[in-house]
Design goal:
Layout lengths: L3 E2 L13 E5 L3 H12 L3 E5 L4 H8 L7 H5 L4 E4 L6 H9 L8 E4 L3 H4 L10 E7 L3 H9 L6 E7 L5 H11 L7 E3 L2 H16 L1 H16 L4 H30 L2 H14 L2 H15 L2 H11 L3 H11 L2 H11 L7 H7 L4
Parallel strand pairs: 2-3, 2-4, 4-5, 5-6, 7-8
Antiparallel strand pairs: 1-8, 6-7
Helix pairs in contact: 1-6, 8-9, 8-12, 9-10
The protein binds NADPH dihydro-nicotinamide-adenine-dinucleotide phosphate (NDP) and magnesium ion (2 copies).
The site of NADPH dihydro-nicotinamide-adenine-dinucleotide phosphate (NDP) has 24 residues, from helix 1, helix 2 and strand 6.
């Protein structure tokens, strides 16, 4: 089995007294900055003026520009949206990187697809939490963590691995387990996973199930509970004990249905499509399309996003979640505050 590292395997002092600059204060940024600070490290946050900067100041960080934060930093962690990284890197990060310092990422996309080309005199590593930023923060506060992958792209100091691991410790990832990877493996598996399974696969499966039931005349409320709401309960069982725990907990009827009907829905044909998705990730076609879409101002992204928002599952879901006070709907709260 691959070696999984935990807190005791890590030299935490490697980053003691060093300056860590967190660039960006969004989903990942706020979690890394706050967790690292609470782990005893010195953290500055680099941002442009705006909502994120206000939030960082509220959380007790100084308002610094990207250039100011990077200057003199021993580790610069880039937590900007992937599509904004190349421009901010060229303008404000690269000119201020200290020789012998480390440039770090939470996803390998820009290094792997050559959108950011680092200078030869810095270490380059990634620490990629395998979970959303808000859970990186919440689990840390609960005394736990989100597992992470680390990888080294460039090691000029001979110390890149120790620094990456201390960083992983600082965000709480080494409480849950840290695994070694490469920029290529992290980038390709992350893109494939989110497209075919976690985000794309699951949302298409949920919608198709909801549509099949409502088109057959069943109530949308029932279809929503069956195909979306209950998914969390099933996934929690998988998270705790794998497919076998989920199957242990469900009825034998459900388990028989799982065996005979699951492979009718997700079959060899589906797997052939997954292989095509993986090929487009590996050969750079997906990356190229996404880079061009951003350069064009995201016409397709915005059109599809608006279309998806009009799906009947959105309306019924909003109504049902409003009646379940224990379900804290962040989107609905943001809408109330006029933020989306
Ligand atoms: P978000 O979109 O949540 O946050 C982006 C942050 O960058 C915001 O604080 C934003 O501030 C700031 N920003 C954007 N453009 C600029 C700019 N031109 N100059 C200065 N600041 C800017 O990003 P994520 O946290 O989702 O993603 C960060 C990285 O983490 C990515 O590489 C992503 O792939 C990776 N990652 C993300 C995960 C997730 O859970 N979301 C999971 C694992 C990895 P402002 O308010 O000013 O716009
Ligand atoms: Mg991703
Ligand atoms: Mg059932």
């Amino acid at each position: 089995m691959t070696k999984v590292l935990y807190n005791n395997d890590i030299q935490k002092e490697v980053l003691q007294g060093k300056k860590i600059a967190i660039i960006g204060y969004g989903s990942q940024g706020h979690a890394h900055a706050r967790n690292l600070r609470e782990s005893g490290y010195e953290v500055t946050v680099g941002l442009r003026p705006g909502k994120s900067q206000e939030k960082a100041v509220e959380d007790g960080f100084e308002a610094q520009s990207v250039a100011e934060a990077v200057s003199g930093a021993d580790v610069t962690m880039v937590l900007l949206p992937d599509e904004n990284q190349p421009k901010v890197y060229e303008e404000s990060i690269k000119p201020n990187l200290k020789p012998g310092s480390a440039l770090a990422f939470a996803h390998g996309f820009n290094i792997h697809f050559n959108q950011v080309v680092p200078p030869e005199n810095v270490d380059v590593f990634l620490v990629a939490p395998k979970g959303p930023g808000h859970l990186v923060r919440r689990t840390y506060e609960e005394g736990a963590g989100v597992p992470a992958l680390y990888g080294i792209y460039q090691d000029v100091t001979g110390n890149a691995k120790e620094v990456a691991l201390a960083y992983a410790y600082g965000i709480g990832a080494a409480r849950a387990g840290v695994l070694e990877t490469t920029f290529q493996e992290e980038t390709e598996t992350d893109l494939f996973g989110e497209q075919a399974v976690l985000c794309g696969g699951v949302s298409s499966l949920v919608k198709a199930g909801f549509e099949t039931l409502t088109e057959a005349g069943y109530q949308p409320e029932v279809a929503y509970f069956e195909c979306l709401h209950e998914l969390k309960l099933i996934v929690d069982l998988m998270y705790e004990g794998g497919l076998e725990n989920m199957r242990y907990s469900i009825s034998d009827t459900a388990q028989w249905g799982d065996f005979v009907s699951g492979p009718r829905v997700v079959n060899e044909e589906t797997k052939a499509r997954m292989k095509e998705v993986l090929e487009d990730v590996q050969n750079g076609k997906f990356a190229k399309g996404w880079i061009l879409e951003n350069q064009a101002g995201r016409p397709q992204f915005n059109a599809i996003n608006n279309q998806e928002y009009k799906h009947p599952i959105t309306k019924v879901g909003k109504e049902l979640r409003a009646l379940m006070p224990f379900v804290k709907d962040p989107i609905q709260n943001k809408e109330k505050e006029g933020k989306v």
